[in-house]
């Protein structure tokens, strides 16, 4: 005979209530402080993982395969929803061929500067920068950058 205990079990949502100092299994979170928000450092590291992955032309599935996780887990890392542990971060750095420090570059800036340097780069912008960097002729690269500079100034002037 099947156990009736399983059929009668309650949902297992746990909420820590500061006023009681213990876990209340049935109480729904009532204040914004009780919801977990990603830490800004986790968001920054995730953004840097995404930038490095896209610059390498790697999909989330490809990176997930190298790390032994699903592409959904890679998405959570990139959004900062799930933290990346130290060993996984080292594994990620190896898979993307970047130093671990790369993920923390600019973390102390606070992200409050709205300059284009600190803007979140689109997939196309990262891919374009990567292709530009791959042009072997330095003079040609400089001319392309000059063309982009002139085009952006013309657009700003109009």
TrEMBL record:
SMART domains: HTH_XRE
Superkingdom of the source species: Bacteria
Name listed for the protein in its UniProt record: Helix-turn-helix transcriptional regulator
Keyword DNA-binding on entry: yes
PANTHER family according to UniProt: HTH-TYPE TRANSCRIPTIONAL REGULATOR XRE, TRACRIPTIONAL REGULATORY PROTEIN-RELATED-RELATED
Source organism of this protein record: Pacificispira spongiicola
Boundaries of every HTH cro/C1-type domain copy: 49-103
Segments for region (Disordered): 1-33
């Amino acid at each position: 005979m099947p156990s009736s205990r399983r059929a009668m079990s309650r949902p297992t949502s746990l909420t820590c209530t500061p006023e009681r100092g213990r876990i209340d299994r049935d109480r729904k979170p009532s204040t914004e402080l009780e919801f977990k928000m990603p830490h800004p450092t986790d968001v920054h590291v995730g953004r840097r993982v995404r930038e490095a992955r896209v610059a390498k032309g790697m999909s989330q599935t490809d990176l997930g395969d190298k790390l032994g996780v699903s592409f959904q887990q890679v998405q959570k890392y990139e959004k900062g929803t799930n933290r990346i542990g130290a060993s996984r971060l080292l594994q990620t750095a190896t898979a993307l061929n970047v130093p671990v420090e790369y993920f923390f570059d600019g973390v102390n800036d606070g992200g409050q500067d709205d300059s284009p340097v600190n803007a979140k780069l689109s997939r196309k912008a990262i891919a374009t920068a990567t292709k530009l960097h791959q042009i072997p002729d330095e003079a040609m690269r400089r001319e392309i950058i000059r063309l982009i500079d002139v085009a952006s100034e013309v657009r700003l002037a109009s």
